[in-house]
TrEMBL record:
Species of the source: Ceratopteris richardii
One cellular component (GO) term of this entry: endomembrane system
Protein name, entry field: RING-type E3 ubiquitin transferase
Catalytic activity reported: S-ubiquitinyl-[E2 ubiquitin-conjugating enzyme]-L-cysteine + [acceptor protein]-L-lysine = [E2 ubiquitin-conjugating enzyme]-L-cysteine + N(6)-ubiquitinyl-[acceptor protein]-L-lysine
Membrane topology according to the record: Multi-pass membrane protein
Record Pfam families: DUF2921, DUF2921_N
Residues covered by the SWEET-like domain: 748-1035
Main location: membrane
Keywords attached to this entry: Membrane, Signal, Transferase, Transmembrane, Transmembrane helix, Ubl conjugation pathway
EC number: 2.3.2.27
Keyword Ribosomal protein: no
Annotated compartments: Endomembrane system
Length: 1089
C-alpha cells in the first residue's frame, strides 16, 4: 500500500463528492465563469490590460491612452461648448462611479444610414432552412460599457474632460442578447442567426453647458471585408447562416469614431441616449462604411426625477371616458402598498392585448395596434389580429407616499414595450431602445379612486410624441368574464392628432405570487351556475353502474381542508389527443388546469414544478388562524383556468371556466370562455355573439380517476372541450378530447414519500447485514488459504459492479445539482425533507463500504492464485481460471436475455420492441427502447443469481475445501431476495413518474412482477443449494468414491508424461500449506499418480 503514496487520497476525495456532495477544491484551481477565459484572449489580442470589474462578473478593458492627440483632433468640434463648472475636477472621484455605470447600456439599437457600404450584414430575419419560411425577426442590438475612468488625466489645460476607456458591441441576433461583454479573438464573429462586432475604444468624457453629457471616442477592431458586388457584398454569409465552416476575411481598422449623447437627468422627456458610429476613412477607401446611429436609454443606475405635473394634469384631470377606454371595476385595490403590489404583478410578466371587439369605426382605425407603429413588413401579420403580440412593462420606478387627508398615493414611471408575434420574445424582453413600439410613461395612483393614470410618450422620433393616456386598475372581484389581476387601456388624448381605438390589455391570474392582503381581499362571482347544472343533468345517469360507482369508488373531495381539493383538482401534465379514436392521429400536448375558486374560496398562488401543482390559499383563514371548512353540500361551485400547449410550447387553446364539481362521480361540468384572436373582419361579423369580447359558447368536462381504485382503473384525467356553435360559424372549433398521463393525488404522493423513507431504512439494514456477510467471508479467507483460489472472481465482480453502479449514478446526480436547482425542485415535487437526504448519504456510505470489502476479497483471491501459479509454473491448468466460467455464464445470460426479450415482445405484441417516452422527476421526457429497459432490469436478475459463476466454477475446477462460508452465500442470497419478498407483501403504491427512483424495488419492472417475485427466489435458492452440495461433496471426496469404483473415471491431472517437481519445491509447498487438504480433521498431502 505504501507504493501508492499520496495518490490513495484522491479516490477518497472523489468518494466524498459521491457520498456527501461535498465541494472539494484541488489546490488553487477553481471553476471560473465563461467570460474569464474569453476576456483573457481578448486582452492578448489587443495588447491591453483586462482587469476584473463591472457588474455580474464582467471583465473591464483599460486602454493605454496613447491616442490622446488623435482624440483631441477628431473630437474638437464636439467639445466647443464645455461646461465651465469649477467643481468638475473636485467631484471627479465621486462622478467616477456614475460615469462607469450610468453611461453604460445594454441591448440598445443601431440603424444604418442609407448607402452602399454597410458596416456588417443585417440578417434581420431568421429563415428556416427546411421550409424557407421566416420564423422570427431578429434585432439590431448595441451594448456599450464604460470600462475605465482615468481620473488622473483631468487637467485645467484640457478643460472639463477626463479620459475614459470603453467597449462597444453591435450585432444582429435572432436568438441571444448582448447582455454580457462577450469578447472574441477576431473582433467580428458570425454564426447562424447571430453576428457581432466588438470595438475597444479610448476617448474623453465631457459635460456641456446645456447639461448634456458627452462621450467622444476613437476605436479599433477587425472588420469583415466587403466583396466587390455591391448588391451582395457578403459572399460568405449564406454558407455561415446554413451552418458551414466559412469565415469572412477580417481587416484591422483603427479609424473608428463613436460619439454618444446622454441626458443629465432621467425624466419622462429626457431618457433617450443617442449617438453615432462612423468611419474616419475617406469615402473612396475600402474600409469606409456608412454611418451607424445608436439608440438606447438611461438605465437602472440613473435616478428618476418625477416632474411631469402639468402633462399629467392634461392627461388625467377632469377627463372624459372615451369609447373603448377601460371603466373602473366595482371593487379595486386601495391599500397602502401599491408599489409593492404593482411591481409583483408587472416585473418580468408578459401582458396580453385584447382585441378591439367593440370597435365601430373604420377598419383602418379598429385594426390599429393602439398607438404603436410597426414596420411595413409586419403589416400582413398584424392584419390577422393581435394574437401572439404582447406588452412588457420595463424599468418600473414607483414611490409610495401618504396624502395630507390620510389617503395613500404613489408616483410611478415605466416603459411599455410592444413585442410583435413575429419577434423573438426573449430578445424583446431585454431590449432597451425607445422606438415606435415603446411608450415612456409617468403618472400617479391614489387610494381614493384606485386608478393609476399615466401620460405616455411614444419613442422613435427626434422628439417624443406625448399624446397617450394609460389607465390601470387592480380588480378584486373575479368572474368568468373577468380573470385579470390587472387591467388597463391605452388611449389618445381628446384633441390628439393620433387616431386609434383604445388598446385594452390585462394580466392573467397565474402564475403570480400576490401579497397575501391582496388575495385575502379577492372574491369570486359565479354567473353560469344554471348552465353548469344543466350540463350535469344532461350527463347524469341513474343506471345500476352509476349507483355502484358512487357506492364503491371515492373521488377527491373536501375532507377537513379545502386546500387538498384545490391541489387534487389542479393539473400540470402531459396529455394525448384523441384517446378514444384509434384512427385519429395522437399528438402530445401539455395541460395546465388551475382551480381558481371552490365555493367562496379563492386561491391564486401556484408553485409550478415538474408537472405538479401546489396551491397556497391565503383567503381561507379566519382571524384565529384556523382554516374554514367547506360545507359538505354537493356539488361544489368551482372556477378554473385551462391552457393547452403543443409539444413546441405554442398555445392551442386557453379557457376560463366555471361550473360545478360532483365529488360522487369525480366530474367537473364547466362553461368556458375564450379570447377571440381572429382577423378584424371576422371579429366584426361575430361581435354581437360575444360576451365582453369572449366566446362563451363552450362546454368543458373533466373526469378524474378514483382515489381508491388506481390499480383497477387507469389513473388518468379525461378532458373534453366542445363548441356549442354550428360548424359554419367562424368561431366554431372541433371537439377536443385529451387524456393525461397518469396523475398522483396528494395522498398518493405522501404514500410515495413514506415508502421511499421506509425503503431507505430497509436498504440501510440490508446493506449493514451484507457488510456482516462480507466481513465474515474475509475472515474466513484468511483462515482457509488452501481454498481461497477456488472463489470465483466473476462472482465477486458481479457483486462489485452491483455496489459500484449506485455510486456512479451518485456522481452524475452530483454534477446535475451543481449546475441546476434540481434538488430544490425535487423536494417541492414530493415534499421530501432533509431526512431523506441523510438516508441517501448513509446508503451510499454503506454501499461504498460493501464495494471496498468486495475489492479486498478480490485482491485476496487474485494473490492466492498468483502464489499457486508460482508454485506450479509447469501446471497452469491446475490453477483456477474464470475464462471458461465467464464464457459459459455469458452464454447462459445471453440465452436468458433473448428469451426474456422474446417473451416480453409476445406479451406486448401490439407494441413490438419500440421506443417509449418516460418522464423523470423533473418533468423531462426521455426516450428509452424496450431492449434497453429490459437489459437494465436483466442485470438486476444477474445480481440476484450471483452464485451462478461459482456453481459453474465448482463444476469445472477440482475444488479443494470449502471456498465460500455458508454464512456468506446463504446470507447474501437471502438478503438479495428480500426486495422480492417485500414487494410481494407490500401493497403497491402507484408511482408513474418516479418508479426508477425506488431504492428498494421497482414495481413496474418485469423482474419485480408477481411472477418474478416467485421465480427469481426459487432460482437463487436452487443455486445456493447447489453450492452447498458442491462444497459438501467436493472434488476430493468424489475422487475417493470414484477411485474405489473405477480408476478410469478418475480425473487425471495430465494424460502425458509429467516432470516431477524437485524435493526442495515439494518441501516449500508443504511448508506454505498450499497442498494441505483438511479432510475430517486429518492432513493429507496431495500427490500425483
Amino acid at each position: 500500500m505504501r507504493a501508492f503514496g499520496c495518490r490513495k487520497w484522491l479516490p477518497a476525495l472523489v468518494l466524498a463528492h459521491i457520498i456527501f456532495g461535498a465541494h472539494v477544491t484541488f489546490g488553487a484551481h477553481q471553476f471560473t465563469p465563461l467570460g474569464s477565459g474569453e476576456s483573457a484572449s481578448f486582452a492578448s489580442h489587443y495588447g491591453s490590460e483586462m482587469a476584473e470589474g463591472g457588474e455580474g462578473g464582467s471583465f473591464a478593458y483599460r486602454s493605454e491612452y496613447d491616442r490622446s492627440d488623435e482624440v483631441q483632433k477628431h473630437c474638437k468640434s464636439h467639445l466647443t461648448d464645455l461646461s465651465s463648472d469649477a467643481s468638475f475636477r473636485k467631484d471627479l472621484e465621486t462622478k467616477k462611479w456614475a460615469i462607469s455605470n450610468e453611461l453604460s447600456f445594454l441591448n440598445g439599437e443601431w440603424q444604418e444610414v442609407s448607402g452602399n457600404k454597410p458596416l456588417m450584414p443585417s440578417m434581420s430575419t431568421f429563415t428556416n432552412a427546411s421550409n424557407r419560411l421566416v420564423e422570427n425577426r431578429g434585432f439590431r442590438l448595441a451594448s456599450f460599457w464604460v470600462t475605465d475612468v482615468d481620473v488622473s488625466s483631468a487637467s485645467s489645460s484640457q478643460g472639463n474632460t477626463v479620459n475614459v476607456s470603453a467597449v462597444l458591441q453591435v450585432g444582429v441576433s435572432t436568438e441571444r442578447s448582448l447582455s454580457y461583454m462577450s469578447s472574441g479573438l477576431q473582433g467580428f464573429q458570425a454564426y447562424p442567426g447571430f453576428a457581432l462586432l466588438s470595438i475597444v475604444m479610448e476617448g474623453v468624457y465631457a459635460e456641456l453647458r446645456t447639461g448634456e453629457r458627452l462621450l467622444c471616442l476613437l476605436g479599433s477592431s477587425r472588420l469583415p471585408l466587403r466583396g466587390k458586388n455591391s448588391s451582395q457584398p457578403w459572399d460568405w454569409l449564406d454558407p455561415v447562416m446554413n451552418g458551414a465552416s466559412s469565415s469572412p476575411t477580417l481587416v484591422d481598422d483603427t479609424q473608428l469614431k463613436v460619439v454618444l449623447h446622454f441626458p443629465s437627468d432621467l425624466t419622462l422627456m429626457t431618457r433617450q441616449v443617442s449617438g453615432r458610429l462612423e468611419s474616419l476613412h475617406d469615402t473612396s477607401e475600402s474600409l469606409y462604411f456608412n454611418p451607424v446611429d445608436l439608440f438606447s436609454q438611461l438605465g437602472a443606475y440613473s435616478n428618476y426625477l418625477f416632474q411631469a405635473g402639468g402633462m399629467f394634469n392634461r392627461a388625467c384631470s377632469n377627463r372624459d371616458i372615451q369609447q373603448g377606454e377601460i371603466l373602473r371595476p366595482p371593487s379595486v385595490y386601495v391599500g397602502k402598498a401599491f408599489c409593492t403590489v404593482v411591481q409583483e404583478l408587472l416585473t418580468g410578466q408578459w401582458v396580453d392585448v385584447l382585441p378591439n371587439w367593440n370597435c365601430t369605426t373604420s377598419n383602418d382605425t379598429c385594426s390599429k395596434f393602439g398607438p404603436f407603429l410597426y414596420p411595413k413588413e409586419e403589416e400582413s401579420a398584424m392584419m390577422g389580429g393581435f394574437n401572439g403580440s404582447q406588452l412588457l412593462v420595463q424599468d418600473i420606478r414607483c414611490v409610495d407616499y401618504r396624502e395630507s387627508d390620510g389617503s395613500y398615493g404613489a408616483n410611478m414611471s415605466a416603459v411599455i414595450r410592444a413585442v410583435l408575434s413575429t419577434q423573438n420574445k426573449n430578445l424583446g424582453f431585454e431590449r432597451s431602445n425607445l422606438d415606435s413600439l415603446t411608450l415612456a410613461t409617468e403618472g400617479k395612483w391614489n387610494s381614493r379612486s384606485g386608478e393609476l393614470c399615466m401620460m405616455g410618450c411614444r419613442g422613435g422620433d427626434k422628439k417624443p410624441v406625448c399624446e397617450m393616456r394609460i389607465c390601470m386598475f387592480i380588480p378584486l372581484i373575479l368572474s368568468l368574464k373577468q380573470r385579470s389581476v390587472l387591467m388597463g387601456s391605452i388611449s389618445g388624448l381628446k384633441a390628439s392628432p393620433e387616431v386609434f381605438y383604445p388598446l385594452s390589455f390585462h394580466l392573467g391570474i397565474y402564475p403570480l405570487q400576490l401579497p397575501a392582503d391582496v388575495v385575502s381581499s379577492m372574491s369570486y362571482e359565479y354567473t353560469k351556475t344554471e348552465e353548469a347544472k344543466a350540463l350535469r343533468q344532461e350527463d347524469d345517469s341513474s343506471g345500476v353502474a352509476e349507483k355502484i360507482k358512487k357506492s364503491l369508488l371515492e373521488y377527491p373531495s373536501v375532507e377537513d381542508d379545502v386546500m387538498k381539493l384545490f391541489d387534487d383538482l389542479s393539473l400540470r401534465s402531459l396529455a394525448i389527443t384523441n384517446p378514444n379514436s384509434p384512427k385519429e392521429p395522437h399528438r402530445k400536448q401539455y395541460i395546465e388546469l388551475d382551480v381558481v375558486a371552490i365555493k367562496d374560496h379563492v386561491s391564486l398562488h401556484w408553485v409550478q414544478s415538474s408537472g405538479y401543482n401546489y396551491s397556497i390559499d391565503t383567503a381561507d383563514f379566519e382571524k384565529d388562524g384556523k382554516k374554514k371548512a367547506v360545507d359538505e353540500e354537493e356539488p361544489y361551485n368551482v372556477a378554473a383556468e385551462l391552457k393547452v400547449k403543443d409539444d413546441l410550447g405554442n398555445k392551442v387553446i386557453a379557457l376560463s371556466a366555471e361550473g360545478q364539481y360532483d365529488s360522487t362521480l369525480g366530474r367537473m361540468y364547466l362553461v368556458g370562455c375564450r379570447e377571440v384572436n381572429v382577423p378584424w373582419g371576422t371579429l366584426k361579423q361575430s361581435s354581437e355573439q360575444l360576451e365582453n369580447g369572449l366566446d362563451c359558447s363552450i362546454k368543458f368536462k373533466v373526469e378524474y380517476p378514483p382515489t381508491n381504485a388506481r390499480w383497477l382503473m387507469n389513473p388518468t384525467v379525461m378532458l373534453t372541450v366542445t363548441s356549442n356553435r354550428s360548424q359554419d360559424d367562424p368561431l366554431f372549433f372541433t371537439q377536443m378530447e385529451l387524456e393525461t398521463f397518469p396523475i398522483l393525488y396528494r395522498r398518493q404522493r405522501e404514500e410515495i414519500v413514506s415508502r421511499k423513507s421506509l425503503e431507505g431504512g430497509l436498504s440501510m439494514l440490508t446493506l449493514s447485514l451484507i457488510l456482516g456477510c462480507l466481513i465474515s467471508q474475509l475472515i474466513y479467507v484468511k483462515s482457509h488459504a488452501e481454498s481461497t483460489p477456488y472463489i470465483s472472481l466473476l462472482m465477486l465482480a458481479v457483486q462489485g459492479l452491483g455496489f459500484s453502479f449506485p455510486l456512479i449514478t451518485g456522481v452524475e446526480a452530483l454534477f446535475a445539482r451543481m449546475t441546476s436547482d434540481s434538488e430544490d425542485m425535487r423536494d417541492s415535487v414530493l415534499n421530501e425533507g432533509k431526512w431523506s437526504h441523510v438516508i441517501g448519504y448513509m446508503v451510499n456510505l454503506l454501499t461504498l463500504a460493501a464495494f471496498l470489502l468486495t475489492v479486498r476479497i478480490v485482491q485476496k483471491v487474485y494473490r492466492s492464485r498468483i502464489r499457486l501459479l508460482s508454485r506450479r509454473p509447469l501446471e497452469p491448468w491446475r490453477v483456477p481460471n474464470d475464462r471458461k466460467v465467464g464464457a459459459i455464464c455469458l452464454g447462459i445470460h445471453i440465452l436468458g436475455f433473448v428469451t426474456v426479450l422474446i417473451i416480453h415482445t409476445i406479451r406486448l405484441s401490439q407494441r413490438p420492441v419500440s421506443s417509449a417516452m418516460y418522464m423523470d422527476w423533473r418533468g423531462g421526457l426521455h426516450r428509452q427502447y424496450d431492449w434497453e429497459r429490459i437489459l437494465k432490469e436483466y442485470y438486476g436478475l444477474v445480481q440476484d443469481l450471483f452464485l451462478l459463476p461459482q456453481v459453474v466454477g465448482n463444476h469445472i475446477w477440482v475444488v479443494r475445501g470449502k471456498p465460500l462460508r455458508s454464512l456468506f452465500y446463504v446470507g447474501v442470497t437471502v438478503l438479495r431476495l428480500l426486495p422480492h419478498v417485500y414487494d410481494s407483501l407490500r401493497p403497491q403504491v402507484f408511482n408513474p413518474y418516479f418508479a426508477d427512483e425506488f431504492q428498494y424495488a421497482n414495481p413496474s419492472s418485469d423482474f419485480y412482477s408477481k411472477a418474478g417475485d416467485i421465480a427469481i427466489p426459487l432460482l437463487a435458492v436452487a443455486l445456493a443449494v447447489v453450492v452447498y452440495i458442491q462444497q459438501r461433496w467436493n472434488g476430493l471426496k468424489w475422487g475417493k468414491v470414484l477411485r474405489q469404483g473405477s480408476s478410469k473415471l478418475m480425473r487425471m491431472g495430465s494424460k502425458m508424461y509429467e516432470r516431477l517437481p524437485s524435493k526442495t519445491f515439494e518441501a516449500e509447498m508443504v511448508e506454505s500449506g498450499a497442498d494441505q487438504l483438511y479432510d475430517n480433521g486429518h492432513i493429507a498431502v496431495s500427490t500425483e499418480s
